């Protein structure tokens, strides 16, 4: 077991400060050095961790106190960082942006303080020179319990610009400038309606970003400033023999899964068996259930609808009485129809009643408190758990559909869009559930698969 490692949180002054670019470049640059890098993402985001996994060649874990609790966050971080040479957490929004004004809850600062991580502060330095000093001073003084170890300037214009920024920080006695990433369209991150694009060009973009990070950041100094003892990992549970097989939809259309959810199922003897609703003509054999995660089914709706063999296999599986769960994009696949952004209607699995259509504007976003309204693969009626909702589509369910959840937002208001529906053993919702919010849920899920 390692005694020391470099560990830090990359935070931003605000969204758009370039922290994701810096994170991806650092993950790949450190991996190039032969370091074992453990990536993490603050908050409920399910897209950035996909890029972290490509960059670090290792699964990224979400760290979220609302979904996991403080103990759950510590456990996940320590367990997954224990064997790493470097642990790199990407923040969310600005460093002190929490779920409500005046509170650190849900912020990058909350995670950095909870895990005692030094912070690397990214600053959009376009149009800044001496003003970087009072800006960084404010962030350093706002919470004295946090240590800002260094600054990364993004969107800089030249080597001279970098010198001005570095000297301004030095003269003010502030944390050092560890480098400045000049603006470069070749490493600009493309966007989609759910955030960053996730396509085959990602690896090439990350390689170019790592080249830039190696040229323009002082990696040796960064690693030295963030050295610390490796936190003790939780005791490993004894291995559980496989007792059930769960089919996991994994392809370009279905990609969003919390890594800790899957790990919790595996720890309970569930063998995860990937399959592709896009490319496969049959389901794997011996499955006790199906799990359709989130993703971009709307971008592949024509291909999903054309794969009639798979749709028939899913219908046959659902009719067998074994549990089928779809969340967000998975819900769309399980419904009867999906109308894409161009207004084209595609017939899909139809194992849940209703249809959905894509909208140009965001339909729902936020944390949700949930309580099941009927027995399900998550446990008896009244089971409580937490999740996150983020989607552009809207689902139209028949008036007689049975809602799966009673859902409320952080203000205690009912959220009908998160209620989902259930038809016997098949259930779906827009919710991205986190099983750490109730450890009885993965127990029940594993038991249902038997």
UniProtKB/TrEMBL annotation:
Molecular-function annotations in GO: ATP binding; cobyrinic acid a,c-diamide synthase activity
Entry keyword set: ATP-binding, Cobalamin biosynthesis, Glutamine amidotransferase, Ligase, Magnesium, Nucleotide-binding
Single Gene Ontology BP annotation: cobalamin biosynthetic process
Cofactor(s) needed: Mg(2+)
A Pfam family matched in the record: CbiA
Every CobB/CobQ-like glutamine amidotransferase domain range: 246-438
Active-site residues per Swiss-Prot or TrEMBL entry: 328
Domain of life: Bacteria
CobQ/CobB/MinD/ParA nucleotide binding domain boundaries: 9-194
Enzyme category, top tier: ligase
Pathway named in the protein's UniProt entry: Cofactor biosynthesis; adenosylcobalamin biosynthesis; cob(II)yrinate a,c-diamide from sirohydrochlorin (anaerobic route): step 10/10
Catalyzed reactions per annotation: cob(II)yrinate + 2 L-glutamine + 2 ATP + 2 H2O = cob(II)yrinate a,c diamide + 2 L-glutamate + 2 ADP + 2 phosphate + 2 H(+)
EC number: 6.3.5.11
Entry-linked InterPro entries: CbiA/CobB_synth (IPR004484), Class_I_gatase-like (IPR029062), CobQ/CobB/MinD/ParA_Nub-bd_dom (IPR002586), GATase_3 (IPR011698), P-loop_NTPase (IPR027417)
Site (described: Increases nucleophilicity of active site Cys): 432
Domain comment, as recorded: Comprises of two domains. The C-terminal domain contains the binding site for glutamine and catalyzes the hydrolysis of this substrate to glutamate and ammonia. The N-terminal domain is anticipated to bind ATP and cobyrinate and catalyzes the ultimate synthesis of the diamide product. The ammonia produced via the glutaminase domain is probably translocated to the adjacent domain via a molecular tunnel, where it reacts with an activated intermediate.
Other remarks on this protein: The a and c carboxylates of cobyrinate are activated for nucleophilic attack via formation of a phosphorylated intermediate by ATP. CbiA catalyzes first the amidation of the c-carboxylate, and then that of the a-carboxylate.
Protein function: Catalyzes the ATP-dependent amidation of the two carboxylate groups at positions a and c of cobyrinate, using either L-glutamine or ammonia as the nitrogen source.
Family statement: Belongs to the CobB/CbiA family.
Protein's name in the database: Cobyrinate a,c-diamide synthase
Upper classification of the organism: Bacteria, Pseudomonadati, Lentisphaerota, Lentisphaeria, Victivallales
């Amino acid at each position: 077991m390692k005694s020391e490692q470099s560990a830090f949180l990359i935070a931003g002054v605000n969204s758009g400060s370039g922290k994701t670019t810096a994170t991806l470049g650092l993950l790949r640059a450190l991996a190039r050095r032969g370091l074992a890098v453990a990536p993490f993402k603050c908050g409920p985001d399910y897209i950035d961790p996909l890029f972290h996994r490509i960059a670090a060649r290792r699964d990224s874990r979400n760290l979220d106190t609302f979904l996991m609790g403080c103990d759950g966050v510590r456990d996940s971080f320590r367990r997954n960082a224990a064997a790493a040479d470097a642990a790199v957490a990407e923040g969310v929004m600005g460093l002190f942006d929490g779920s409500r004004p005046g509170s650190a809850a849900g912020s990058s600062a909350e995670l950095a303080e909870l895990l005692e991580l030094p912070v690397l502060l990214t600053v959009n330095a376009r149009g800044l020179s001496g003003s970087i000093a009072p800006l960084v001073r404010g962030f350093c003084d706002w919470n004295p319990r946090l240590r800002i170890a260094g600054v990364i300037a993004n969107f800089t214009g030249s080597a001279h610009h970098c010198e001005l920024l570095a000297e301004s920080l030095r003269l003010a006695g502030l944390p050092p400038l560890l480098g400045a990433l000049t603006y470069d369209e070749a490493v600009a991150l493309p966007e989609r309606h759910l955030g960053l694009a996730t396509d085959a060009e990602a690896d090439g973009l990350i390689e170019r970003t790592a080249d830039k990070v190696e040229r323009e950041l002082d990696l040796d100094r960064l690693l030295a400033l963030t050295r610390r003892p490796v936190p003790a990992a939780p005791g490993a549970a004894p291995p559980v023999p496989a007792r059930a097989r769960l089919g996991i939809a994994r392809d370009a259309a279905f990609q969003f899964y919390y890594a800790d959810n899957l790990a919790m199922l595996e720890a309970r003897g569930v063998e995860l068996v990937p399959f592709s609703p896009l490319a496969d003509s049959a389901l794997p054999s011996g499955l006790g259930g199906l799990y359709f995660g989130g993703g971009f089914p709307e971008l592949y709706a024509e291909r999903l609808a054309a794969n009639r063999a798979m749709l028939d296999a899913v219908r046959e599986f659902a009719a067998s009485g074994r549990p089928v769960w779809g969340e967000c994009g998975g819900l769309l696949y399980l419904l009867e129809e999906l109308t894409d952004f161009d207004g084209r209607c595609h017939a899909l699995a139809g194992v849940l009643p209703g249809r959905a259509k894509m909208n140009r504007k965001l339909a729902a976003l936020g944390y949700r408190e949930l309580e099941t309204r009927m027995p399900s693969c998550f446990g008896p009626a009244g089971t409580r758990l937490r999740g996150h909702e983020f989607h552009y589509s809207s689902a139209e369910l028949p008036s007689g559909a049975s809602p799966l959840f009673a859902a409320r937002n952080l203000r205690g208001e009912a959220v009908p869009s998160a209620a989902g529906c259930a038809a016997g053993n098949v259930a779906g919702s827009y919710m991205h559930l986190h099983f750490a919010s109730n450890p009885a849920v993965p127990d029940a899920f594993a038991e249902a698969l038997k």
